[in-house]
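Hi C.,

You asked whether I'd gotten around to modeling the 916-residue construct. I have! Everything is below, sequence then structure, no commentary in between.
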Amino acid sequence: MKPLRIFLSRLYALLRSRQRARDLDDEIASHLAEATDEYLERGLSPEEARMAALRGFGGVLQTTEAHREVGSFVWLDDLRQDLRYTGRTLIKNPAFTLIAVFTLALGIGANTTVFTLLDAVVFKPLPVPAANELVTLYENGPEGSADAAGGTGRYLRFSYPRFERLQQALGSQGSLAAVTRSSRFSVRLPGASEARFLQAQMVSGRYFATLGVSAARGRLLTDDDARVDQVSPVAVISDGFWKRTLGAADTAIGQTVILNGVTLTVVGVTPPGFFGMWTDSEADLWLPLTLQPALRYNNNSSGYGRIDDDKPWLAQDLVAWLNLVGRVPAVELRRAIPLLQAANHQGVAALADTFTNPRTRSSMLAHTLVVEPFSHGFSGLRARFSDALFALTALVALVLLVTCANIANLLLARAAGHARDIGIRISLGATAGRLVRQGLTESLTLAFAGGTAGLLFGAWASGFLARQVLGRSGQLPLVFSPDVRVLAFAAGLSMVTAVAFGLAPALRAIRVGRAAALGTNQRHAVGQVTMRGMRSLVVGQLALSVVVVFAAMLLGQTLVNYLRIDPGFSTDRFVTALFDPIDSGYAADQMPALSRRLVAATRALPGVTSAAASRCGLVAGCSSSGAFRIEGAEEGVTLYQNWVGSDYFLTVGIPLVSGREFNERDTEHSPRVAIINESIARRYFQGQNPIGRRLGSSQPDTEIVGVARDAHTQTLHEPPVPMVYFPIDQKAANLQTALTNLDVRVNGDARGAVSAVREAIRRTEPDLLIGDVGTMSMRLARDLSRERIVAYLALAFGVLTLLVASLGLYGVLSYGVARRTQEIGVRMALGARHVEVIGFVLGQSVRLTVVGIVLGLLGTVAGGRYLSGMLFGVTPLDPTTLSTVCLAFIVVTTLASYIPARRAARVDPLVALRCE
């Protein structure tokens, strides 16, 4: 109990510190008065009696300090005094305070912005209980591309029969769930006059149980809801959908919604904050995946062979359309993995036996099942942006270091200006620890103000950048909202920043103050100590700035190189629209008629010169491939394919190298025809004329009537793929021909025709689910969104660091000119010309700049290699870029040095010689 009493006593003393100080002063004064009276009675004079009383007391200040240390929290009282002193100092120097806070806000804000995005895309765990127990399953194959789990060579989707096999094999070792990618569906609420489009996912019955999620209202899906013979389909809605759309009504449970013509009963609401397993897209509804045939869902799938869309995918082992996630306790994981791998190998072997092509069979048998942690969920942005975000994190860290160095220089200059005051405090007994504590208090105050402003700036900037990345202007997914992790990061970064830029100046201030306290050669000692520190910091600033600016130049040149790519089609006066007829209720055999109606409606618009529909739009994230046999070739080949309407090549601006385009005569009753691109002609016909030759899926039954120029149909990041085009009107039973794209060529400005095209589609097909409608330039810009955002941010960071470094150099030279005013005056009095004085100052600048550039060039070697995977058309150590960066630094630092040099040249020798 004694420590508690002491603590409470000191806390009470702290709360009454002023009253206790007055009481102590009164008590000491009373004691000294009594002692003085005693000495007066002994015959001493008043002055002698007073001095004797003070000597007998032993020191008023020491007694007061000792009493304060015993009766209160000394460190807290010191902190209060330091804060008051810091506040008065910063208020008296508003220019310094504003510059320091603004600079720190930019540095900390930039770091907070990038960390918020990096945390959302890479690090933030799913908002479910015990997320560390979650695992995901995928097949590791000899080929493949970057995927949503952040790896390459992976096949994340499984068929429904394979899922059932794996679920049965896992047994009691854990729980396994299947889920589709979030897709847009047409939803009609009771009493609503129009349908609305929402994001929905189809899941297995154990989906919510596997994730460990409980219902906020009602109940969630179970195995009984996911039975194939279920006659009363149900749905679970998100908390956001319940609040935004249904007004948080208690009657939501039991309400019916119509999804793609299927009536569903709402049975539950998910808890707030739950958005599913895809961190960059939130679902509004969750449905049993056994509704796939009723809802006509056919998105985000791949197949080992021909996919029969007339049959439910639930029975087709060839269709991979499900992502698998399991919950396996750590103690069971080692035993569960072999069981899952054995079951998957049996499924792969059984599927491979259905193929006669040895190459296909061997490729399938090479796939192995991998089980890995899944606490961070799926993310389409992770594979695309993780490297870029890590690179930006390194750049903003360098920016913050440059910022800290610049503020440290400002603090060093202030310490030199207050050398006499510091010297007096040291002479009066101030300890080194007390002075350092005072300096760090000032640094922490600045860092707190800059960190608060930076956090607010980072919250806004991260939201803005997330909208640019996701291509949306409305509400962002919850994962991109700043949270406690971001707040902790900003607070920790502010603390580290305060120590980084405050500790060294505080230690230097002690040396400066001691030099001033000695009184010997004060100006020279103070100036030498300060200049050495400031020069070192400026060299460090310049070196770090060289690395940042060089990286920014490389990334900027990469963007320029991408923009210079010829896509293979004409992008001017080009409007493109995406739509989804299958989810809107259209059947596959209605596609040709739908195509004709849409084309007729848009061609009737003023200024439209041509229009054509297609299965996959250019650079629209849509692709389809299949196995083909080419006449004269012994083995089958895999080609990309697309179905397009008449005048397609004229509309999109892909020129034909030879042959003809599709026209109205290419109907369902005419001989089948196809157009190939140059890549197929070169690879498989080897200089021979392909016109008149044949190809086909099962047999070569389709005549090649034209050869089109190679085009970047998928993305600008990859070379043109081997593409074969078929006419929409010649629908083959073994080909999926659901339309998703309409291309329109106009006479004037394409942006002005966007709304007219959208309205024409809506007027012609009121029930058609319309997606993005915009210009082809906008679509290409989205394809390069990563390069554009990274380049713009890197260039902004580069300009900022170059500006801060040049300001640091300007400050050092200005301080040097002020310190050496007398020396410059002597030089001018002895005959030095203005040009020589300017050259003297510029020479100092050149030396600092050269040293900084040389050190920075060493850092660019590592930086360039780190960025090599993000570069296109430029080498990591591009000599032109290096030369440009060096020249830019020389020019900027020379400009920054010119004003101090001119000021030195204007020094009046008579005034300078009188200067102490």
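If it helps when you're writing up: The CA atoms of residues 580 and 876 lie 43 Å apart.

Thanks,
B.
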